[in-house]
Amino acid sequence: MYTHILVPTDGSALSDKAVEAAIKLAKLAGARITAFHAVEPYPLQGAYAAEASGVAELQPEIFAERSEEYAKRVLDTVTKAAAAAKVQCDTSFATSHSASQAIVEKAKKEKCDLIVMASHGRRGLEGFLLGSETQKVLTHSSIPVLVYR
Fold first, then answer.
1. So where are the chain's domains?
2. DSSP 30-59
């Protein structure tokens, strides 16, 4: 059966439910999980981007700091849920322009044998039935993907 499950999460309600399902599956299978969060890079480029936007909070350093803090909060939630279920859990996050690519690469690097993820996340129902990142993971992953709706 499965021994190592990658669980990408963005902190959305449906993603939280997918995490819960992944933890239950891991417990039944005697597997461990790796919770993963992909952080988008700073959206504005150029020396005057933050100044031109008129929003000082969009400075790259502050953006990166807040993104990392959010990732840690999201992943901490998974860690606590896994600990309560007595499932081994590691966490990781990465900055990437493509969440789907980061997910597929992480699964390969960690030698996961299953990816469990939500059908869509914070961005809603992009791609009609499946979120665009979920669709891309399904398309590019050589590892089985269990999509939670």
1. 4-148
2. T-EEEEEEEEPPPS--STTHHHHHT-GGG-
CATH class given for the domain over 4-148: alpha beta
DSSP conformation class of 87: -
CA Rg, the chain, in Å? 16
Q: 113-138, pLDDT tens digit by residue?
A: 999 999 976 554 444 444 688 999 99
Mean pLDDT of 2-20: 96
- Rounded Cα–Cα distance for residues 11 and 68 (Å): 13
Q: Model-level pTM?
A: 0.86
Kind of pairing, strands 89-95 and 114-118?
unpaired
Place of tokens 């939280």: 16
